[in-house]
Amino acid sequence: MRFPPRITLIGAAAAVLSALLVGGTVTATPAAAAVGSICYSDLPSQAHDTLDLIEQGGPYPYSQDGTVFQNREGILPSQSSGYYHEYTVITPGSSTRGARRIVTGEENQEDYYTADHYESFDLVNYGC
């Protein structure tokens, strides 16, 4: 199992407090507002299978799995190119890859789940 994300609300609160104390401004970005949270136990079983494959380093069912995710939608936090990678979450009954994906952020080991082909993301919470 992957380690829980190292991104915390405490770190975000510290950044806001720091900006306020030095007279800066804090603005909410659409990306931050668009990322939700989902408990690991609430993911579909196929997402568990995908996360297990990621942990094992493959083999993956599709050649696109493990490729760089560009974050063109701008929903995930902004990172340098190559930070995010995407993996297919198999959709039973679909003749294509379907819309479900796991997108990983390597540095902080965060895992995001999307069921709607990048229109929204949920950060996987391993602690609930």
From TrEMBL:
Superkingdom as given in the UniProt entry: Bacteria
UniProt entry keywords in alphabetical sequence: Hydrolase, Nuclease, Signal
Signal peptide boundaries: 1-28
Segments forming a coiled coil: none
Entry annotated with the keyword Nucleus: no
GO molecular function: hydrolase activity; RNA binding; RNA endonuclease activity
InterPro entries: N1-like, Ribonuclease/ribotoxin
Protein name (database record): Ribonuclease
The species this protein was found in: Streptomyces cupreus
